[in-house]
Design goal:
Elements lengths: L1 E5 L6 H12 L3 E3 H8 L5 H11 L6 H12 L8 E4 L5 H13 L6 E6 L2 H15 L6 H24 L3 E5 L4 H28 L3
The structure holds adenosine monophosphate (AMP).
Length: about 200
């Protein structure tokens, strides 16, 4: 199963990514985690990544694409993978698509967790209170949600046009959501298998 996961802050993306990876026996690969772990190394690339992350910007497409390509070439990705936090730009979408189609291992699905904005705001405000994050107030949270929506909308459109998009409501209990996610992904995978079988039977 080759998957991407997308979702706004507060929709439980990290929790669901872990459960999906366990359920399908695939590694969950978060580019944010990769970059955070690189920050401590003392190499020119690590210093560059550290500076970009500290300024709140994006790591360049070239560096990001290369790091993901190297990670996907590792043996644990042979049976599939779940990418989290990548792709984030249209250039990254194109590079990933070309690499996967080139190796005959295209994506099976792009999972987008959806969540009602007011509910997510309430969730994040509660979390900020519990964790004492005073910089998380309703305004900053709404800006982050809007930024997510603006940045992902063009990517979701591309994947929607490719017939890969699977949208699942991310609100509810953890298990309730994961059951919904597994059912939706299994459905998508079955659809893909039927399409492949038809192509083999009738290659015209
Ligand atoms: P995240 O934990 O996904 O929010 O990522 C943390 C930081 O890592 C981001 O603010 C970016 O600086 C960097 N990063 C993660 N993924 C990407 C990506 N696909 N493209 C560019 N920068 C990224």
């Amino acid at each position: 199963m080759r998957l991407l996961i997308m979702g706004p802050p507060g929709a439980g993306k990290g929790t669901q990514a872990k459960l999906i990876a366990e359920h399908y026996g695939i590694p969950a690969i978060s580019t944010g985690d990769i970059f955070r772990s690189m920050k401590t190394a003392d190499t020119p690339l690590a210093r560059q990544v550290r500076d970009i992350m500290n300024s709140g910007g994006y790591v360049s497409d070239d560096i990001t694409n290369q790091i993901v390509a190297e990670r996907l070439a590792e043996p644990d990705c042979e049976g599939g993978f779940l990418l989290d936090g990548y792709p984030r730009t249209l250039a990254q979408v194109e590079t990933l698509d070309a690499a996967l189609v080139g190796s005959g291992t295209p994506l099976d699905a792009v999972l987008a967790l959806t969540a009602d904005t007011d509910e997510v705001v309430a969730r994040l405000l509660k979390r900020a209170e519990i964790e004492g994050r005073s910089d998380d107030n309703e305004d900053t949270i709404r800006v982050r949600l809007q930024t997510y929506a603006d940045q992902t909308a063009p990517l979701l459109e591309v994947y929607g046009n490719h017939g890969l998009l699977v949208e699942v409501d991310g609100l509810g209990g953890i298990e309730e959501v994961s059951e919904r996610v597994f059912a939706a992904l299994d459905g998508k995978l079955a659809e893909g298998l039927v399409a492949t079988a038809e192509l083999v039977e009738d290659p015209s």
